[in-house]
Amino acid sequence: MPLVSVVIPTRNRATVLLRAIRSVFAQTFEELEIVVVIDGQDSQTATALAEIQDERLRWIEIKETVGGSEARNIGIRNATGDWVALLDDDDEWLPTKLEEQMNEARTAPQNCLIVTRFLDKRRNAEIVLPGRCPRLGQPISEYLFCETSVLGFRNGFLQTSTWLAPRHIFLKVPFSKGLPRNQETDWLLRAVVQLNLDILVVWKTLAIFHNERSSGRISSMSNWRDTTNWALSPGLFTPKALFSFFAIVTIPAARLTGEPLCVFWRQLGIARQYGRPTLRSAWLFAAAWFVFPYGRFGLRSKLQNIFNLRARS
Fold this sequence. Notes:
Order of helices and strands: EHEHEHEEHEEHEHHEHHHHH
Strand order of the largest sheet: 3-2-1-4-8
Shape: globular
CATH superfamily of the largest domain: Spore Coat Polysaccharide Biosynthesis Protein SpsA, Chain A
CATH topology of the largest domain: Spore Coat Polysaccharide Biosynthesis Protein SpsA, Chain A
Distance between the termini: 35 Å
CATH class of the largest domain: Alpha Beta
CATH architecture of the largest domain: Alpha-Beta Complex
Strand content: 15-25%
Number of helices: 12
Helix content: 40-55%
Number of domains: 2
């Protein structure tokens, strides 16, 4: 029986998926299995997986697409390890990632989430995250969204491909089925509170987040509206964290889709009604619209490295 089950949801990305799988097979920790969940019809991926001769790999083919959240849930329910490690199909691990985490797991509390630092690999820059650990007693929403640099970079970014937790954690609090976006953030905000999770950070850079999305890609017009509606769900954010979330997530998304200025003022009104601004989040709210709305990931990423606002390992 494996000790760790690595769950990878995927669809129509066989090339990057194989890179992710190779990084798992290269782990110095060997008591593992890989459970790939193919989310919908995808014969190319199934064919590519069938060519891999390793009994530690198995996959589940879902006839109808269910989305990333439920694909992860299915993989977790079918896992056999006591621990579950999540890996996105376009990311990869460094060889000692699981070994370092399982060393931490030996003395970890029963309800815990063990993460590592990772390399946020952007088109124009590379940044090591997270920049700091959660403070004792700090609300999870404030750690995730209030720990920001003056350029709007999140020091509290816990990337999904670094997550390792006891399987029972994910079974008690599954990912929200049908949620089109903000899936990982939604899970963190709910699970940490409901289960009183301890977040343990292995302070080594042990994963690579291939953040092609940081190139400034314009999403569909509805994305930021959906995100706004989700963020206003009761109990997810503290007022302070909610305003900051609007400043660094919904406002940049709305600006990049070319929305008129009235949207800025409308979003500001909602953020002030339900959230609580700080000096920094108020600056970021305005800056995301007026200061660095275009090419925001290129120049800002380079400045972030120059200012060295995140400790590099």
